[in-house]
Amino acid sequence: MVASRENGTFVSHSENYTRSIGAALAKVLKNGDVVSLTGPLGAGKTCFITGLADGLGINSDQVSSPSYTIVNEYRGEHELYHFDFYRLENNSELHNIGWDDYLTRDGIIAVEWGEKAGELMPHKHIDVNIEMLYNTTRRITMHFWDF
Known about the structure:
Elements: E1 8-12, H1 15-26, E2 34-38, H2 45-55, E3 71-75, E4 79-84, H3 92-96, H4 99-104, E5 108-112, E6 125-134, E7 137-145
Parallel strand pairs: 2-5, 2-6, 4-5
Antiparallel strand pairs: 1-7, 3-4, 6-7
Helix pairs in contact: 1-2
């Protein structure tokens, strides 16, 4: 499981295990960290973020994909700003929701469909790619950029 801020690949055979990988990553995150999640619809991005919330001491029952609101804020031992860029048409929409302001706040940012941020994604961030292998099996690859 994630024990340090190093690149790694994990294979999950269940939603519970995907959540536990997210919770393990949360233990090595610091305020200001940005986690960008990629993967097809239904891959488990929101499930992974639910695990992040658990690991950050946030009641994960609150966690839901902010597909229509673009961002949900959760408070616990840490703050978690959960974005979903699936419906973004262009990067100018990020300015309208205060993306730059969120990047300066204390807390952790987790972004579903983070690749849509393009050049507005900070260079220092963590990429989490979730691949659907079959049924409930997922390959989860983490890459820590500039850490």
